Amino acid sequence: MAEQERLNALKGYDILDTLHEKEYDDITELASEICQTPISLISLVDDSRQWFKSNFGLSVRETPREYAFCTHTIQNPSQVFIVPDSRDDIRFSANPLVTGYPNVIFYAGAPLIDSRGFALGSLCVIDNQPRELTEKQISALQVLARHVVNLIELKKADRAMKAMHKALTERNNDIERVHLLMRDRFCQDLEVAVGTLQNENSGTLVANNTHKLTEISLTLKEMRTLLEKL
Fold first, then answer.
1. How far apart are CA 55 and CA 42, in angstroms?
2. Number of domains in the chain
3. Which of 42, 124, 145, 192 could form a disulfide with 54 if both were Cys (CB 3.0 to 4.6 A apart)?
4. pLDDT digits (tens, 9 = 90+) for 99-124
5. Phi/psi at 156 (5° precision)
6. Are 70 and 121 in contact (CB under 8 A)?
7. For 34-88, what is each residue's pLDDT tens digit?
């Protein structure tokens, strides 16, 4: 259940399979520079894959989840997950991402924890040779990971605001249409009533105005349809 809730939270951000965005790419480039690694990724862990919102130094956008180092990162979201040399780690030594491209020998991932506590993925740095990070580098990676989450949540809030604005605009348009319909039809019906009175006053008997009543009835139905949408 907890994993399904995490996946639902991830999908709720509508970020998977989106295009590159400079704000995210700037963060991975900076992380790579700070940690002095050739690769840095913003990895989001889906049900069957890890998908990269930003992939600095790497040519692919996703890999199977079963091979993902980031799966281990989100399982312990309270700290940075570090693998100094994957060839000496039984969990990863036979991993295709280690034995083949992109030759993940060193890995460090800071979990991406949203405001509700869900681990969405990681901001990670990768090298094809063994290494360690300093405490300052680890701290900087965590700070950048928080910036990634802030960016994800801000973009979601922005989309929600735009959707609300669109809904309000459509509602206002409906109200305006009702107003115009009421004004135009009221004027038309008033002219009919005035004309009828003029005919009666001039001695001309208007015995049957059924068709006018029908028109008024249809007008009221149209108004009712619009009002029901409000």
1. 7
2. 2
3. 42
4. 999 999 999 999 999 999 999 999 99
5. -65, -45
6. yes
7. 999 999 999 999 999 999 999 999 999 999 999 999 999 999 988 999 999 999 9
- Residue whose tokens read 């930003």: 54
Task: Tell me the pTM.
Answer: 0.72
Same domain, 113 and 9: yes
The residue among 122, 143, 16 whose CA lies nearest residue 74 is 122
Question: What is the extent of the structural domain holding 94?
Answer: 3-159
Written in H, E and C, the secondary structure of 101-153 is: CCCCCEEEEEEEECCCCCEEEEEEEEECCCCCCCHHHHHHHHHHHHHHHHHHH
Same domain? For 208 and 110 the reply is no
In contact, 139 and 110? CB cutoff 8 Å? no
Instruction: Dig out the tokens for 58 from the structure.
Output: 């790497």
Please give the distance of CA 158 from its chain centroid, rounded to a whole number: 9
